[in-house]
Amino acid sequence: MVSRVVDHLDIKLPDFDIVGLFDRVFKEWVSGRNNNIGKDLSAKMVKQGIFLLQCMIKWYVTTGRRPVPAVLAVMVFVCELNDVEISMDDLAGQLNVAVATCKLRYKELLKCLVDVARASLPWGDDVNVKHIMINTQIVIQYMEVKSMCNLRKELVSLDNVDLICGV
Predict the structure, then answer these.
(1) What is the full DSSP assignment across 13-55?
(2) For 125, which DSSP code?
(3) pLDDT at 48 > cutoff 90
(4) Which residues contact 90 (CB under 8 A, 6 or more apart)?
(5) Alpha-carbon dihedral 144, 148, 151, 152, rounded to 10 degrees
(6) First CA to last CA distance, the chain
(7) What pLDDT score was predicted for residue 75?
(8) With the C-alpha atoms ordered 55, 66, 26, 84, is the resulting torsion angle positive or negative?
(9) 164 Cβ partners below 8 Å, 6+ apart?
(10) pTM of the predicted structure, to 2 decimals
């Protein structure tokens, strides 16, 4: 109904920027915290979150869905990955989002990461949702390297990931 009205009135609405939303919400959350998160850790977390959101867009996890729960799920995941305390319930309350929807997006993110780990890691058959956090750093680094490689060139193997990423 809304799209027909917009088409009839010939209005151009701006596209929604989910990455910009993540960046804004994350910076507001960091500035509102009393304990200090270093600038290096904050920049690393933003980079990881933006990359995961772009992967979720590529995997069609965000298609046709409300973007704020996906942003919240990525934010909670990145904070847990970097051992920063965060409460999904509190953050969902601040952003006026249903907690149940955020938990569903979180589970979908975990499932997608497990699928990527199973397809790309040599020990991928042993990866499951319960212990994906152990392998997440490697999976993200592998996905970053793979996304940066030119399709015409030879893909970088897992042996060279630590050399490229500086780990």
Answers:
(1) PPPP-HHHHHHHHHHHHHHH-SSPPPHHHHHHHHHHHHHHHHH
(2) G
(3) yes
(4) none
(5) -140
(6) 52
(7) 95
(8) negative
(9) 145, 156
(10) 0.78
